[in-house]
Amino acid sequence: MSELKTDREIDRSKMTVSDEVAIEINGMNKWYGAFHVLRDINLTVNQGERIVIAGPSGSGKSTLIRCLNALEEHQQGKIVVDGTVLSNDLKNIDKIRREVGMVFQHFNLFPHLSILENLTLAPIWVRKTPKKEAEEVAMHYLEKVKIPEQADKYPGQLSGGQQQRVAIARSLCMKPRIMLFDEPTSALDPEMIKEVLDTMIELAEEGMTMLCVTHEMGFARQVANRVIFMDAGQIVEQNEPEEFFNNPQSERTKLFLSQIL
Ligand code: ADP
Ligand code: MG
Hints:
Layout: E1 21-32, E2 35-46, E3 50-54, H1 61-67, E4 76-81, E5 84-85, H2 90-99, E6 100-103, H3 115-125, H4 131-144, H5 160-172, E7 178-182, H6 190-205, E8 209-213, H7 217-222, E9 226-231, E10 234-239, H8 241-246, H9 251-260
Parallel strand pairs: 3-8, 3-9, 6-7, 7-8
Antiparallel strand pairs: 1-2, 1-4, 4-5, 9-10
The structure holds adenosine-5'-diphosphate (ADP) and magnesium ion.
């Protein structure tokens, strides 16, 4: 579990964190009806950080990252993404969604559209990019995730790992400054986890700000600069990977680590 499932060389020297704040969360609380799902969340993320969010099932990891691009509403506190306050103002939500890409456990590709069409749909219809230009950008990112030859196929004809790389390429076509990953490898067979992690490592090496909910603790150790542990809707503990794994502070973190490592 703690081994990184790749034999790829990782160049951490390229993963630099800047002074610029990418995301700021202050006193954030969220309820689902009467259920208090996120409790007093405070978190500052700088540009270039690679953050892994870990924690037991149901601890609020998905809800937290879904709040960051307004897929979920928060009821209390302040979220600022790339200088824009996340409020009910649709203009702001639109702006933030442009800056923030999201990749889910289930790839959410449109089954009746070709891979190329999946990649160009939002650029053409949301961004009003000319079709030819959108296709050039799409091919660029398909090459980047190493499956340009799949452009004319349909999602059902691709392996899970290939579909997830298409989903990542689709996000990149919108030129995000921040990428959110919610268990991107959890639905994949072991041999396909590697190819998706390799793509994520490459993004990290290019300086992308990344928040990743993942159980891949090898990725956390070697790629993340910070691991955040959540339990019962709270950030219980956060630290650099070395300290987080070797010297966990809270009992809840120790218990969690003893179960997964
Ligand atoms: P995690 O991603 O850490 O597994 P989630 O953020 O998905 O946790 O869920 C946190 C808690 O909120 C869980 O108890 C879950 O059942 C609950 N929950 C998630 N989504 C909803 C929803 N749409 N309505 C009500 N409760 C929800
Ligand atoms: Mg989840």
